[in-house]
Amino acid sequence: MERSMLLEVIGDTIENRVIDILxxxxxxxxxxxxxxxxxxxxxxxxxxxLPDLVKKNTVKPTRKIGRVQLYxxxxxxxxxxxxxxxxxxxxxxxxxxxxxxxxVKI
Length: 106
Description:
Number of helices: 5
Order of helices and strands: HHEHHEEH
Helix content: 55-70%
Strand content: 5-15%
Structural class: alpha+beta
């Protein structure tokens, strides 16, 4: 799994991986299996940490399809809002660096 720019800054912990994946897919609902697979962690590990992320209101259950509960990032959470701004800043910085590299080659 390639680390995102956000994980480079905030640290590559299991909780941060889950938050990062959900931020990248903001507006999309994920099953526990999808989250675990995208984070390269086992489902039992996710089952241990997900209730705490929900309790902290960082991740929210969204809807059920049959017996499968889906989750997404809670964009109303202050911590998540700050992380979204940080990610936006990192993307802008990366874009500017790439733009400068292209100018140097031309």
